[in-house]
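Hi there,

I know you've been waiting on this one. I reran it after we fixed the sequence typo, so this is the corrected version. Both the input and the resulting structure follow.
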Amino acid sequence: MRTLGLDVGSKTVGVAVSDELGWTAQGLETIRINEEEKEFGFEQIGKIIKEYEVGEVVVGLPKNMNGTIGPRGEASRFYASELEKRFGLPVVLWDERLTTVAAERILLEADVSRKKRSKVIDKMAAGMILQGYLDSKN
């Protein structure tokens, strides 16, 4: 059974998937969404769930540094509840504080151009969220 990791933003959702043993996470793609238009990319998520035989989903929960939940955290909670309703899979909310910052730092240190960074940062952050979750289980 594979686990899907998602980094949900207001314009994109970074997607990562685990290997079949649940040891490693790999960034898969970035899905364009539009919260204002109620376009959340669930159709594409469904295709990925089917293709990779996903049995569990991890959604990054952006908490404030003091541990409280702000508007982005509430948006992630909504997204997670919609995933549960639509696909009937267990969905885990995982503290993602600073994963996007860490992904950005790694890409900067690797001297990746700004244009290329913007294309991969969300799926890389999703991979970091998922890897943190997988490491906590193993």
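Quick highlight: The chain has a mean pLDDT of 89.

Best,
R. S.
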